[in-house]
Amino acid sequence: MGIRLQEGNDQICWSLDGERDFSVAGTRRNIDAFLHTGSDMGTLWCNAVPKKVNVFAWRVMLDQLPTRYNLSCRGMEIKSILCPTCGVGMETLSHALFASCFAKEVWRNIYRWCNISMLIGESFCEWSEWCDLLPTRNNRRLKMQVIGLATCWMIWRFRNSVLFDAGRMRKSDIVHNIILLSFSWLAHRNKKCKVSWVD
Ligand SMILES: [Zn+2]
């Protein structure tokens, strides 16, 4: 193969996606296109939420959170696989974040706050796919992605508080905290997104 040398200064260019300049979004598209071909789930990285929440979301999408059911499937001996929040259902990921009475009540309140009249689903992937269909106008899509992430994050934190912190987090504060957290992430972590309490 012949090498053609050109006049000019040396420069570094990114050759993976033909864009020449490196970008996280381009790399993500590349990973989705070539490494996740067997999965219909793309990667999700939302700049408007903290890194730890993105990592949390990734674990949710892969069903890798240490729910009691998942721990028992991995051979860990645990006293009960019942949900620590309600004590009724088996604590699978879907139960913990969406299907338990507690999670449903939280989501109902979030739906009401966001004026959503339909049931979107009982998994994070369904929520995420629904968000992907929303218009980007007025950052509607981003806002709903952030609100969904804040909701899952707070429900999981509440569950951990019940298990490891003697339930110090109050159930009645959860929805209020989700609203505060969503507003704070959108207002302070994303310069392009203008939010006000009216939104
Ligand atoms: Zn439960």
Number of helices: 8
Tally of structural domains: 2
User: In percent, how helical is the residue content?
Assistant: 40-55%
Give unreliable regions as ranges.
none
Strand content: under 5%
- CA distance, first residue to last residue: 59 Å
The counted number of beta strands is 0
Q: What's the main sheet like?
A: none
Q: Specify the structural class.
A: mainly alpha
Protein name: RNA-directed DNA polymerase, eukaryota
GO molecular function: RNA-directed DNA polymerase activity
Keywords: Nucleotidyltransferase, RNA-directed DNA polymerase, Transferase
Pfam families: zf-RVT
Primary descriptors:
8 helices; single chain; 199 residues; binds zinc ion; mainly alpha; globular
